[in-house]
Amino acid sequence: MKRIFLSSPHMSGNEQKYIQEAFDLNWVAPLGNNVDQFEKDLATYNHMEGASVLTSGTAAIHIALRLLEVAEGDKVFCSSLTFIASANPILYQGADPVFIDSEPDTWNMSPQALERAFQDAESEGQLPKAVIIVNLYGQSAKIEELKEICDRYEVAIIEDAAESLGSEYKGKKSGTFGKFGIYSFNGNKIITTSGGGALVSNDIEALNKSRFLATQARDQAIHYQHSELGYNYRMSNIVAGIGRAQLKVLDDRVAKRRAIFDNYVEAFKDQPGFDFMPELEETKSNRWLTALTINPEAAGITNMDIIHSLGNENIEARPVWKPLHLQPLFEDAKYYSHEEGYSYSDELFKYGLCLPSGSNMTEEQQNRVIHTIKKLM
Ligand SMILES: *Cc1c(COP(=O)(O)O)cnc(C)c1O
Q1: Pocket test for ligand 1, best of 99, 106, 137, 163 (most atoms within 8 A of CB)
Q2: What pLDDT score was predicted for residue 270?
Q3: pLDDT interval class at 228 (50, 70, 90)
């Protein structure tokens, strides 16, 4: 049986055209037309002033923290229920992460937990330098409520939209609500360049600074001169060519992933104990991954039972992300739960399940997943 992946690269067929163009012009490296054009296309798609394309989404978060002057001893608030890449750059800067729990309507950052974290930070006399808000599995966080709190304390938002490119919140594209938004084009994301990321913003000067920092912070001089610490983070012209072709099919990919989600919902609609990830009113999720919780008492099986039986059929499934406040790497970090003494992300981790959701899945493959789970019931 051919392996079914959680989310695998799905090429459109036009990627080679842009790569060939780079070869023909010998713009194989470092920069060139594909980079410039991919930055423009990304900005246009998201209705933003500009974009700076980079080697990864992690690099984009790192640059955003640098642009906000996050330094040693500073605090940064960050969603707890996310992939480790959201928070690693906080450590790169020698700053201290403070993790914020999820709430039930979006599985994303809880406004009431964020409020408590800010109240404590204020009374301790040290506000955070930035708040990293993650849009998990494509679903936007409660941006308006979270933004109101951050604006009141005058702290900048970095919207980690690595998983939510193409999603919408009240008619606006995901990743466009903070001072900075970041996207990822890693191999498992909704579109991929094989690896890559982007920073978007309406601050053109900051984006120019991003390009400067990402190319070793080279001063304007014919000799190599440097007055600031920089990185080698800029995307190559070959990789950007893949991105140009992928971005053209993004809306098709969103439609396909949403259809896969609907198919799973329909298949398990009469199944007690299966609760699919909600979609907040006035938002549209790209449904990057179909996520749900399995209540073992009602369902008679656990999420891990499902993961193991799918594994036996050569099908990849996973629990939801292990929250960062539970990670050994962050055992000393502060954490604010949704309610005092009640952590919602712990519950999502315990019962959560992600099903194969790639836009290149065939109907027969989806049926294989559904049938394997139904056999267990
Ligand atoms: C994938 C991902 C990232 C990091 O992107 P890379 O391009 O792999 O560095 C950051 N945050 C979240 C939530 C992600 O899922």
Answers
A1: 163
A2: 95
A3: very high
Q: Give the mean model confidence (pLDDT) for residues 348-352.
A: 98
Instruction: Please indicate, yes or no, if residue 9 is contained in any of the structural domains.
Output: no
End-to-end CA distance of the chain: 22
Name the percent of the chain lying above pLDDT 90: 97
Nearest-CA neighbor of 128 among 137, 138, 118, 136?
A: 118
Instruction: List the domain range (segments joined by +) for residue 108.
Output: 15-249
**CA dist 10 to 7, 39, 139, 181, 190, Å?**
9, 21, 21, 24, 8
Are 68 and 138 part of one and the same domain? yes
Nearest-CA residue for ligand 1 atom 11 is: 86
Rounded CA separation 269/276 (Å): 10
Q: What is the largest CA-CA distance in the chain?
A: 70
**Residue 254 one-letter amino acid:** V
pTM exceeds cut of 0.90? yes
For residue 26, which of 238, 194, 232 has the smallest C-alpha distance?
238
Let me know if residue 63 belongs to a domain.
yes
CA of 348 to the centre of ligand 1 (A): 20
Strand bridging mode 274-276 / 290-294: antiparallel
Closest ligand 1 atom number to CA of residue 196: 7
| Cα→Cα distances 92→97, 195, 241, Å | 11, 20, 30
